[in-house]
Design goal:
This protein is an alpha+beta fold. It folds into two domains: 77 residues; 47 residues. It is 40% helix and 24% strand. The protein has six helices and seven strands. A four-stranded antiparallel β-sheet has the order 2-3-1-5, with no helix packed on it. It has a three-stranded antiparallel β-sheet with strand order 4-7-6. Helix 4 crosses helix 5. The longest helix has 19 residues.
Length: 141
Amino acid sequence: MRVIIPKKWSRVLPILEEFHIERVRETEDGTEYDAPFGFGVTNRQLGLDLQKFREFVDDIRVEGGKKRRKKLWLFVTPISDHRITLRLPKKWRSLLEQYAKDRGETLAEAIRDAIGNALIQWLETREKPEAPRTKQETEFG
């Protein structure tokens, strides 16, 4: 998903860059980011009062995703347009269902969050050499 932040909001760019989004280019309209993962940010995190926060939410553009403001939060999420089917052990399914219930999410949302968190962790560590995994580690986690 692409997120375009108008130039007038340049002071919030360093804060947004903490959310695993990559600066693609500067345009005359503002700064364009590639954001493979959704994120949520509050007005306080951005250092904006409520009125300025509302203006910020109205001003940013999201392509290939959606933005929504819920009270003091801005949520930006990519459109889920690719389907993957997989088989899981019954116990994993029940654990995922409990995980979703505890988080107040649907099963699909919980699975996407778990995969997204694993991908973020991988992205943060992929440049560091990792010791080879044993067969047991590969099979069990």
